[in-house]
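Hypothesis: this fold can be encoded by more than one sequence.
Test: take the structure tokens below, design a sequence, compare later.
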């Protein structure tokens, strides 16, 4: 049993033979993973109960020792709650209480001979053990007070993971570049859901509530908001994104149906729906610190601006609104600023997808750190930061791709309908067909992307590429999907993302051929370049881009 307990972590991590895990799983399967060692405690209790009648001859002493043992193990069981489910935990606690009553009744009815000295010794032991337990609890409380006298987390980012995982991570990276404190996001810091609200209540200095479309509908987010607003000393800052739709008055009155419980019982954590409704009203009220994002966060600068606003002191400007993400952060209003330096690294993401844009920002920051130690003149450019729809954009993009060392192409759920990304994909694949061209095209798959079906290349793609469907776009797109695609799990932990980014970084070539040599080959790609230039008007006229172009 001890061997199995000691090897448990190695077994679940795959460091031991699978036969060990199959053969010893009966020791752990009944308990929570974090209480896998409880089998040892239960067996030790049974061993003591069996040995006491053998080692102790006096009946009264046996009963007192057994009662002391049962009380100690009963306390441990109630504190640890090791079983999977409330029912088995309650059954074991009840059986311990029943055993104590049985021992007490036996002592009263058995007419045992009492040895005074033995009873005094046992009573003294029980008294000392009781006070040791009390002192241990008090010591633990004192240590916690000393440890948490300062906040553990400078900022806690409350967000809807399915809709803003990458945005929350990008915001975390921006905050950490301005503040040395720890920033909490669940993908990195959450170990046990049962401790989540306790962390919000006692360990957080600033609670940043990142409001996207479904943030307040998620039960865990609702619980975090209720705890932060009503039970925490944290400074609460609400960040309003352009996609956020506040609940109506009717929805606030019927929060039970507004919040998608999804099997989560908030009342288990002493959070009632009335408390949630009250917290929502206060969060959306005039007295709350709020930051309004007047534009989408497209650039690193915009996230840095938002980080500074979250960290600023609201004490003198409480309940004021700060507009973040103004047009000044966009690249160029009437000219193309795409750099054409030889050997740069390009990242292409779906412009209209906030998660894809944030993923590109995460990738750029991590790649910059990795490459600066092995590459010279590192320049990483995200194509989505530069707007289409103005004169010269197609030529500038083509020129940037031609001079790039690598193009990292992020595949998101709208990529296969996004003309801009498709054009860049086809340019890259056309250049890649050149026999001595060393451009690396590295697709990375974001959560939610679905690879296209065979019919897509025959029907959907030609309709997106009008008015020049005669180019062999389908074949170029098929060749693109023959490339090895790596995952970019933006909803996973930071350590997993680091591994995935490192894998792509190792594939990037460390040298570049002469730009002039490649530019001389550009003339052979005239057909596709002409298509791209002709598509510029089509892109600008698409309603999906008109809002962005006119805003800029």
């Amino acid at each position: 049993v001890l061997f199995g307990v000691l090897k448990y972590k190695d077994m679940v991590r795959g460091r031991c033979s699978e036969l060990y895990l199959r053969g010893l799983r009966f020791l752990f399967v009944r308990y929570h993973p974090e209480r896998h060692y409880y089998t040892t405690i239960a067996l030790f209790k049974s061993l003591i109960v069996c040995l006491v009648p053998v080692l102790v001859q006096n009946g009264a002493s046996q009963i007192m020792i057994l009662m002391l043992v049962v009380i100690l193990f009963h306390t441990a069981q109630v504190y640890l709650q090791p079983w999977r489910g409330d029912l088995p935990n309650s059954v074991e606690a009840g059986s311990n209480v029943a055993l104590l009553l049985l021992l007490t009744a036996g002592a009263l009815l058995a007419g045992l001979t009492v040895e005074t000295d033995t009873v005094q010794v046992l009573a003294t032991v029980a008294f000392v053990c009781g006070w040791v337990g009390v002192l241990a609890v008090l010591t633990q409380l004192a240590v916690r007070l000393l440890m948490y006298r300062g906040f553990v987390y400078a900022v806690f980012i409350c967000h809807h993971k399915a809709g803003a995982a990458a945005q929350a991570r990008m915001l975390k990276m921006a905050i950490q570049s301005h503040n040395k404190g720890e920033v909490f996001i669940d993908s990195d810091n959450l170990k046990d859901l049962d401790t989540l609200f306790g962390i919000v209540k006692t360990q957080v200095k600033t609670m940043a509530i990142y409001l996207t479309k479904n943030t307040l509908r998620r039960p865990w987010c609702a619980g975090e908001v209720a705890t932060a607003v009503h039970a925490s000393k944290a400074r609460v800052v609400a960040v309003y994104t352009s996609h956020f739709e506040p609940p109506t008055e009717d929805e606030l009155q019927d929060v039970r149906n507004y919040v998608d419980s999804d099997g989560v019982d908030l009342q288990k954590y002493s959070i009632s729906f009335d408390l949630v409704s009250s917290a929502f009203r206060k969060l959306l009220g005039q007295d709350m610190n709020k930051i309004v994002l007047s534009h989408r966060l497209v650039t690193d600068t915009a996230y840095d601006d938002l980080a500074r606003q979250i960290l600023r002191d609201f004490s003198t400007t409480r309940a004021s609104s700060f507009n973040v993400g103004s047009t000044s952060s966009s690249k160029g209003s009437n000219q193309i600023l795409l750099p054409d330096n030889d050997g740069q690294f390009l990242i292409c993401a779906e412009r209209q997808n906030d998660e894809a844009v944030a993923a590109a920002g995460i990738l750029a920051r991590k790649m910059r750190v990795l490459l600066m130690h092995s590459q010279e003149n590192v320049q990483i450019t995200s194509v989505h930061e530069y707007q289409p729809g103005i004169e010269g954009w197609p030529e500038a993009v083509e020129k940037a791709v031609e001079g790039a060392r690598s193009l990292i192409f992020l595949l998101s759920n709208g990529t296969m309908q996004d003309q801009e990304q498709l054009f860049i994909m086809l340019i890259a694949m056309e250049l890649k067909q050149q026999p001595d061209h060393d451009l690396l095209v590295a697709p990375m798959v974001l959560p939610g992307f679905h690879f296209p079906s065979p019919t897509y290349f025959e029907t959907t793609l030609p309709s997106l590429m009008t008015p020049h469907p005669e180019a062999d776009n389908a074949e170029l797109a098929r060749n693109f999907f023959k490339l090895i695609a790596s995952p970019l799990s933006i909803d996973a932990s930071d350590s997993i993302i680091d591994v995935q980014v490192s894998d792509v970084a190792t594939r990037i070539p460390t040298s570049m051929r002469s730009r002039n040599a490649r530019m001389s080959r550009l003339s052979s790609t005239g057909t596709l370049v002409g298509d791209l230039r002709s598509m510029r008007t089509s892109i600008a006229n698409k309603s999906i881009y008109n809002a962005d172009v006119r805003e800029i």
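The two ends are 68 Å apart (CA to CA). Residues 116-147 form the longest helix (32 residues).
Hypothesis status: open.
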